[in-house]
Amino acid sequence: MSALPRHVPSSTELHDVRWLRSSYSTGANNCVETAPLDRGPWTGLLAVRDSKAPSGPALLFSPGSWAGFTAAVHHI
Q: Rounded distance, CA 32 to CA 50, Å?
């Protein structure tokens, strides 16, 4: 059995998800948005997309991987 892809070519493939922005985000639309995936083949993963391209690709992360990434960025 092969592993699922860790991205989707278009965020529109992720139906019925709620995209969230950081409360630190400005209205300039220059941030990332995240959406927890709770159904379908990517259940349990977190989707991340560019807010400037809402129908563009989304990267998929495990919650632990995303938490590790944001913690590392926070300490830079």
A: 5
Cβ of 46: how many Cβ atoms within 10 Å?
19
How far is the CA of 19 from the CAs of 42, 54, 60, 72, 75, in angstroms?
15, 10, 13, 23, 25
Partners of residue 7 on adjacent β-strands: 59
Average confidence (pLDDT) over 24-43: 85
Report the predicted TM-score, pTM, of the whole model to 2 decimal places: 0.84
Mean per-residue pLDDT over the chain, rounded: 87
**31 and 51 Cβ atoms separated by less than 8 Å:** yes
What pLDDT, in 10s, does the model give residues 55-64?
Answer: 999 999 999 9
